[in-house]
Structure formats: structure tokens, C-alpha cells
Amino acid sequence: MRYKTVAIVLIAVFTGLLMINYVQDLNSQSFPEQQIYSQTRSLMDTTVTITVVSSNETSATETIDNAFEKIKYVDELMNNYDNNSEISILNKEDEVTNADPELVNVINRSKYYSEKSNGAFDISIQPILDLWASKYAPGGTNQPPTPDEINETLKLVNYSAIIVEGNNVSMKEGMKITLGGVAKGYAVDAAIESLKSDGITSGFVNAGGDGRYIGTKPDGTQWRVGLQNPDKSEDAVTIMNIQDVAVATSGNYERYFSDEAKVSHIADPRTGYPSSNMISSTVIGGTAMDADALATSVFILGEKDGLAMIEKLDGVECLIITNDKEIIKSSGFSTYESN
Hints:
339 residues; alpha+beta; T-fold; 2 domains; 8-stranded antiparallel β-sheet; 9 helices; 14 strands; 22% strand; globular; disordered N terminus; metal-binding; ApbE-like_sf; flavoprotein; magnesium
């Protein structure tokens, strides 16, 4: 997914620029058999780190390479700024036949998130993002869209109009979808599955803060993940002990349509306007795609409705930072926090 264009910058997630991994200095400890091996590369317009616990450096390097190749594959498949990708074909022709099963899976799962969030998460939001982007692009008005423009464009935002029949996907003429709210999380999950298939039982994949963690560190302790303070200080809001779950954050720390606009990059697909309900929402879930999409959903729904949605979902917890910097946690979030 290419996030460099203005339209994608507007989209939903950018999770994890807010997350901090606490894994430094682990190799300085003495573990004669199992060691930590890690590589960081630039993919999906973000920084991706893959870390594994292994007793063999050659094998570890190979498994990491395989996982990076899987992320690259997902990126090429779901990049709607690559004219040859299936997602671009769908957006241009309103249908794609014999689509890659992985693309179909992500679209179906995205519709599930839409149902659970009562439409707060919607991959068909691309026309709204394009509208806002056009206003602040060179030659644009540098003013928000008019209510009439937004209402007209909202006619093209409707996840229920995305029809999946087998491996064929179709939608209403003029609709466009973007998977920027789930593709990164899905890529993390795919990389983790690649590691597992290569025999890795401990490690993590973190793509710009969408992280999924399996097993433990060589000393048997859990992975530690910190949530950055909104004041951008080095202190973490909280440090989570993570094992066999994923973490993602949606936040309004510093990304905007433009410096002049000063509006959130996360738009509400129900209203067509940017969401400014909170500073950030952090979700712990079973998969990175779940955490990714649900963090965005909570951010758009707001404190009350977002928390209510999370409490209804099994195996999912969240932490919300309100606009006045109050910290609100779901009922089970504290079980993941360091004492």
C-alpha cells in the first residue's frame, strides 16, 4: 500500500507510529542456545521490523527473508496506486473476477469490521478521501468540501454494496475502496504465518506500529511494547507484556490533510468529515488485522460507543486517550500491563 499520496495519507490508520518496542539490549544477555535475530526494511511506505528467536543465524536469516517476501506480495496485491493490482482493477472497472483469495479474504473481513462498528469502519471511503485531498492539493480551494459535495460523495460510500461471490468482487459504479486500514495489519499476520511455517515459535513483526508477537524472549519473558506519550516525551503511557496477540494504535498525534487544514487524517465514513473524538485508541487483539481495523473503529466511534463495541468482542481490549488526555481502558486491558 502506497501511503505517500495525499489520498492515502488521509486514510484511516497510520497505526503504530505511536508504538515503541522494548527489545533493546536483549542480545547482550547470555542465552547459549536461543538468540534474537532482527532485520528492519522499508516496505508499505513504513518501517518494518521482523525479529525471530532462533539457535541458528543462517536459518533465522532465511525465515526473515521469506517473511519479508510475503509482506512484499501483500503490498503489491493491495496497492491501489499500482494500476496493475487487482484492487486498482476493481476500482476502475467496478468488478474483478477470479480475484486472489487473499484479497477476497481481506475484503470479506473488512465487511465484518463494518458490521461490528455500525459503519464506522468502511473500506469504500476512498471517494471521501479523494474529495478532501482534492481541496488541499495544488490548485485546490484550500477549504473544506461543502456540505453538498460531501453528501453527494457519501452516496458512493457503502460497504454493503460490495458484493463478493466466490472469488468475484463487484460494487456500485463510481465506488472505490482502499485497504489502507487493514492491509498493513494483514501483511503483519501473513508474515507471522510465514515465520510459523518455517518453524519459528517466538518473535514478532512490526510494520509502522502494527505489531504481532508470538512466543517469548529467549529468557522466557514476554515481549514488552510501550505506547508513546501524546506529549512526545520519552516516557510511555503504558508498557504492555505481550504474547501471542497483536497491538495496533490509531491516533491523531500529528497527521493532517495539510498543515493549514489541521484536521484529522481519519475520516468518518458515516458523515464524510474528519474524526476528532480522541487523541488515540490502542487495541490488543488476536490478529494484527483485527487490532488495526478495530483501533480505527474505536477512534471514529468515540469513547462511549467504541468502548462498548470492544467490551462485546471476545479476546479484544483497548486503551483510549481522550482529547483532554484522560486514559480510559477496557475491562481486561490491565491484564496486559506491567506492574
